[in-house]
Amino acid sequence: MRTCTLDTLATPEHHDTARAALAAHYPQVRRFSEQLCAPLEIEDYGLQTVVEASPPKWHLAHVSWFYETFLLRPFVPNYQVFHPRFEYLFNSYYEQTGSGFWPRHERGLLARPTVAEVYAYRQHIDAAMLRLIADCPAADWPTVALRLRIGLNHEQQHQELLITDIKRHFAHNPLRPAYRAELPTVPLTAPAPLRWHELAGGLIEVGATDEAFYYDNEVPRHRVFVAPFKLAERPITNGEFLAFIQDGGYQNTGLWLSDGWAIVKQQGWRAPLYWEARDGEWWQMTLAGMRPLNPAEPVCHVSYYEADAYATWAGKRLPTEFEWEYAALNQPLAGHFVEDDWLHPRPAPEGEGLKQLFGDVWEWTGSAYLPYPGYRAAPGALGEYNGKFMCNQLVLRGGSCATARDHIRPTYRNFFYPHERWQFMGFRLAEVAA
Amino acid sequence: MRTCTLDTLATPEHHDTARAALAAHYPQVRRFSEQLCAPLEIEDYGLQTVVEASPPKWHLAHVSWFYETFLLRPFVPNYQVFHPRFEYLFNSYYEQTGSGFWPRHERGLLARPTVAEVYAYRQHIDAAMLRLIADCPAADWPTVALRLRIGLNHEQQHQELLITDIKRHFAHNPLRPAYRAELPTVPLTAPAPLRWHELAGGLIEVGATDEAFYYDNEVPRHRVFVAPFKLAERPITNGEFLAFIQDGGYQNTGLWLSDGWAIVKQQGWRAPLYWEARDGEWWQMTLAGMRPLNPAEPVCHVSYYEADAYATWAGKRLPTEFEWEYAALNQPLAGHFVEDDWLHPRPAPEGEGLKQLFGDVWEWTGSAYLPYPGYRAAPGALGEYNGKFMCNQLVLRGGSCATARDHIRPTYRNFFYPHERWQFMGFRLAEVAA
Amino acid sequence: MRTCTLDTLATPEHHDTARAALAAHYPQVRRFSEQLCAPLEIEDYGLQTVVEASPPKWHLAHVSWFYETFLLRPFVPNYQVFHPRFEYLFNSYYEQTGSGFWPRHERGLLARPTVAEVYAYRQHIDAAMLRLIADCPAADWPTVALRLRIGLNHEQQHQELLITDIKRHFAHNPLRPAYRAELPTVPLTAPAPLRWHELAGGLIEVGATDEAFYYDNEVPRHRVFVAPFKLAERPITNGEFLAFIQDGGYQNTGLWLSDGWAIVKQQGWRAPLYWEARDGEWWQMTLAGMRPLNPAEPVCHVSYYEADAYATWAGKRLPTEFEWEYAALNQPLAGHFVEDDWLHPRPAPEGEGLKQLFGDVWEWTGSAYLPYPGYRAAPGALGEYNGKFMCNQLVLRGGSCATARDHIRPTYRNFFYPHERWQFMGFRLAEVAA
Amino acid sequence: MRTCTLDTLATPEHHDTARAALAAHYPQVRRFSEQLCAPLEIEDYGLQTVVEASPPKWHLAHVSWFYETFLLRPFVPNYQVFHPRFEYLFNSYYEQTGSGFWPRHERGLLARPTVAEVYAYRQHIDAAMLRLIADCPAADWPTVALRLRIGLNHEQQHQELLITDIKRHFAHNPLRPAYRAELPTVPLTAPAPLRWHELAGGLIEVGATDEAFYYDNEVPRHRVFVAPFKLAERPITNGEFLAFIQDGGYQNTGLWLSDGWAIVKQQGWRAPLYWEARDGEWWQMTLAGMRPLNPAEPVCHVSYYEADAYATWAGKRLPTEFEWEYAALNQPLAGHFVEDDWLHPRPAPEGEGLKQLFGDVWEWTGSAYLPYPGYRAAPGALGEYNGKFMCNQLVLRGGSCATARDHIRPTYRNFFYPHERWQFMGFRLAEVAA
């Protein structure tokens, strides 16, 4: 069995033609981060309303810090840093860089550097990066190319966080401001009834192959046994979740995991995040401001605990990450991604068959986020990227309306703590085959 | 596939001869709880030094409440409760009994009922239980017998907790009192070098069969694929763990899971729980008081985080719960259990082959505590026994020096949060087969 | 102006005949502490239900530690301590003894030493103390005598705390056990209307004179100006306080100090501590268990915030500590003290004139607990007795039904934080003279 | 004795000529608030680094809310509010307005309204206020005039808070940005030795007279007795405080009040706020950025606990607020105020006599902030201005380098909690006369 780490996962063979492609791809990714921030006021850039959602300014700087730390400092001779304290201010959690990092819960307390200075920092990084891509010696290129691809994927992840964090911050404001009031909406419709798709399972292989980029947590590819099962053709909708609420789901302790019930009581949860009852009608906060709840849309911004309680109430369960991957293997990336610019999950399309496995909402699985057999994190700070989080979190699959389409694949493993709700998180049911 | 719940797991066929056996077994189990408390002073019975470790008095009462709630109230006509408030005071966490429960973190604040009153409560329960076992109508017997077996296993679990909680409370006292100063000790020895045992794996079946009693979390029995692997012949010892400490293990962030590193820093962990450095020598608190650390004993009272960090440092990993179960299937229950009355893990015996899979120390596995496919909790309060905890915890296997030998089996799944250390918890390494 | 410290306040002249008297007084005081604990079960001795209320066992040991630390260790050659760790375990808060102290909030976590061991400790101290009183060289006697008198007054203070802490602990138990069920009760009566007593004031002297024992916080005696004022003849009663409650006093933010309102909301205060509404009737927890509220009794177990809010509601104010002292100067100690063995405040007697200034309930004054001009704490640990608390607390005057009559005097200053309620605390109104 | 409330303290006689003066004064005060914010970046306006220091944007809006709430809404017929939610967002703590208020600790989480919108709000208020001043009916004028004067003094208080809060926020940033780098500095000098000024005391009158504006907490004027005392001619300096530090002041528990010692240990205090040791030299954060510590300047940003510990160390004490007022009665307002635009305390001038009683640093007194005898808060929300804070705080006197000179007077009472340090707080010693 092949062990796999961040430093070995990409071999030169896959990438020898990549220099030009990466030189073109780099500015595209960089530009999109700034484009996402265009609707913001200066005042919005510094907001951190909860510890897990960072300020937009911090995201813009941190993704730049990533290139500086893992590419410019090690591979550019006599590289001049933009500011000597930025390695401390914009490191997120990498313990092994030696710089330490500004406390995560205080990211919103840094009015300086200003927004303009952060944009200047980005320009400094971009200029240096383009020179590095152009001029880097061939001997360094394989490592540089791999790290660059990680850096670009890393920035894409932060683009998704930019969107979800902005939504979180704006929803905290009692004025409920819109990020982009002009975002389109769909007419309110009732969802089609839920249909089930049966899959045979068997002794299958899961995990990434070497054909394309992947993160180290997607390998080693290995065999697992999947028993026959049925999978819902689409995610659970707002309308279906409303029936759970109306049936007293949030008051019925027997439906909940113990840790989930504790948080329901402590936080007074009565509905998904961003839902608000106003005069007997349900509304939800969106990136376009407050909108009436659409029963046909996938339910979103629910925790693992809520997904699990719903499944228990419905007499079903969540799929495992391997059931999901097996079902998704030959499915098209047909859902809505960030490029579609809805920034909100849309109702499932009509017709038969599995739908929306990709895009719209991340889907909680019933699988704990653990290392694949034989996994070993890379040595050094870059090895902290994924490996050190393999405890206490659950796997989500498929991407969302805030994910880049070219960022996602069937083997992609996202992970969050079971109480977290601020991502575009929904779920799909499974059950044992008859 | 057969779904399985607490109410259906025991069928009459397995138990038709059980009435006499249970009538004999019941007083044995009950007597042992009281025997464990015999060395205590009255003052010790009420102690709760940390929220997760309950007072001995509470354990004695709670196990009695279990019989009262699930057997005497439902199956004894006109049953007279001992005290109307005890259903509230001695319920642990069952939300669906309707009584509510006294807050867990305040169990140590109840001087009343007194110890004498709790023993009187036990006598009241015992008299009623023996009558029920003798007189219960045949139609009720299957359910009564099943619940009684659960109740007895439940009391055995609390006997183990009595021991570990008393150790925890006594260790908190700066006088470090001995629970039983006369407990035997073994000469200090050096451990034999670690050897490895290779296993072939394959598509195997895991989970309980109907041949003996099991908890609902051990079923449905189902197939999993296990790749070839190597398993250490014995758990890691104090001496080996000391080498990790001396190599700076607790200071090396690169070895730790992120959540584990946070707790190492926050709590100032520098060694396993109960280890103390005095004048350059390591001592450990035991149920016999402070004793010099024996390098040959299995390391004990370590969290999952410490077990995982050690494995990373050693270039190995923890086994999955299925690897462990597969390896343990035909092994004898050869380790030390509570009946051996050492109340402390002993060094592994000499010789070749897998050793100490059972007894001495619970072994952390690398598996999250999740439901087996098709698992469904029983309806009602009894269904809360295991199911609602299937999130955020890890599986441990094999039992410890504080477990009853007749309580354990290869399919038995214990579970704790990854930061917990006060049980007799150790670990064994695994690695990919060559 | 004379400065005054604990070490100089008692001059030999006042005490040259005191050796025999103190030798007789010492065992009386010591015996009373144990007498107060006689109704306790062993289980009750270790209780600490809130941080500010210590376990009875701790009180019994701590007062003994005081003699050991300030008398036996310094004045008995070759004194043998009872246990080397007790100086650490039973020091309360004296930073300058060098021993450190066991954390205050964990006093309830020490099952050992046992109750029997603590009584043995007391006997050890008593034997040594009686020898010291008998044999102490004349040159040491003045200091020994002063410290002994402080030690006895200190034990009297802890006797009051024993009573109030036992009440607090028992009230926390949902069984509401009685400390002494046989304590007498008075028939429910209506209070007589409140009458006012007018006082002329002027430039007066306040603080202790050298005629009797006093604490260092009662001196230097000094002049203050008191304007003419009126003082209520008796404390506010339960019946009067009930009218405040029924008028929405606990809901009317305009009546409350800001810090008080914050705690009302945070703690959900709706009535004095120990009041409980059952089926529309008010009951209160007493040392004899639950009893119906007597409207004629002084209201008790109210915080400064509640006393102040009531006064605002009534259009009055609390007296200053100097107004109180001026009014109390020539009043008899006519209220109920611990020697009267009611352990509960009684209704004011009939008739004209100031009543109940002493005994029954401590009376909150509107004065902050600050040093008198020229006050200086004694050097060393004994100087921590009173001085270091002269911030953030309010002065209470007059003693309560749990205070020893020979412990109290007009100049006596008690002090608590404004939110504290577990002492026998009530209040009396004042207003500007017409 | 005359009782006094906010609604009665200003009688028409004092103010019948004030309409033109107030019409002129209003824009001056308003303009200065905006002038103080001119050096800020947009990013700085929203900062709240600690709960007690509000964002500049919030200050700008809140002072406008004050006019809107207490003047425009009640006195302008058909007044149109700028935004219906601002009464909720920018109320500070007035419980009786009925609007509720946004949580104080979340003031920094409101990116919207933007800075531009808040300035527009100010313009809206200003236009309405100037119309009200011009057109208000004569019958309303006395009340309007009084409330307007309160409103202007209120804005002056928030101007001081703007300065101190900006300093607090900038000091939290690891880049230590300067608010105004061009602020002047004085050469480092050694302070002149401390001299003492003797005062006779006696039965004096304290509190405000009706000759000028005052807050309700400065009355009723009343008699107090002040014994002869000596007062230091100037505040304690950085150099003197450094000697306390070097003598182990922060490590010597015997010098500290109990609550102070607790915070010293918990917070790790080792010096005044804003002091930093760099390479063995002491620096301090100022509004001009980091500067070397000037030993001749008054020590600043110390808590009451530190002031009291220093006094104990020095064998002196803090003056009472009445001693201070008595000493200050005929002194000129000769120190440095905000109009002098140093924004930092300056060394005391040379020469004999009392110096710097006014300006430079607020001086902690040893007096608790309590109501004067006969004080009664005004009914309604405006009565919450001062009265509800008369508990748990200490009085400071004299104003600082961030106070407006025309805001201060000998009877002015400022008040803060004893642990607070972020104002320009220093202290002056007193002692008993020989």
Short note summarizing the structure:
4 copies of one chain form a homotetramer. Chain A is α+β, with helices and mostly antiparallel strands and 434 residues long.
Assembly classification: homotetramer
Q: Cα-atom Rg of chain A, whole angstroms?
A: 22 Å
Provide a count of the helices of chain A.
9
Query: Stretches of chain A where pLDDT falls below 50 for ≥5 residues?
Result: 1-13
The total count of strands of chain A amounts to 12
- The named CATH superfamily of the largest domain in chain A: paralog of FGE (formylglycine-generating enzyme)
Mean pLDDT of chain A: 94
Span of the ends, CA to CA of chain A: 35 Å
Helix content of chain A: 25-40%
* Gross morphology of chain A: globular
Domain count of chain A:
2
Strand order of the largest sheet of chain A: 10-9-8-11
Largest sheet of chain A: 4 strands, mixed
Proportion of beta-strand residues of chain A: 5-15%
